[in-house]
Protein: Biogenesis of lysosome-related organelles complex 1 subunit 5
Organism: Caenorhabditis brenneri
Amino acid sequence: MASIPSVVREITLVGEQIFDHTQVVRAEISRFVDRFERNERHREFDGILRASHALVESSETPVEGLFDMGKMQAMTESVDDITKKIQALVEPKYQKEHDAYLEKVREEQKKYVDACREQAMNKMRTMAANR
C-alpha cells in the first residue's frame, strides 16, 4: 500500500491542492470555451435567443386589434387559398383517364389468367384421357 506522501509526489500536487480543484476546473472551462467558440456554437445560441425573444414578443402582442382591423380574416383567407392550391397540385390531372387505363389493364390481365387456366385444364384433361 502506498503512503500519502508518495502518492502526492507521483501526481505532482502539493498537499493543499489535493482537494483544491480550481486548476482542473479552470482548464476544463477554458477548453470548453475554446471548443464552443471554435465550433461557433455561440452563433447557434444567439439564434436560439433571438427566437426566444420573438416568441415572447409575439405572446405579448395584443391580437384583438388585429381581429378588429380584419387583418386576421384576410390572413386566414390567404392561407385557405394557398391550401386549396396545394391540394389541387396533389390531385392527379388525368384521374379519369388513369382509372380507365387501370380498368383496361385489369380486364386484359383477367382474360390472360382465364386463358392460362383454360389451357392448363385442357392439358390436364388430355393427360387424364391418355392414361
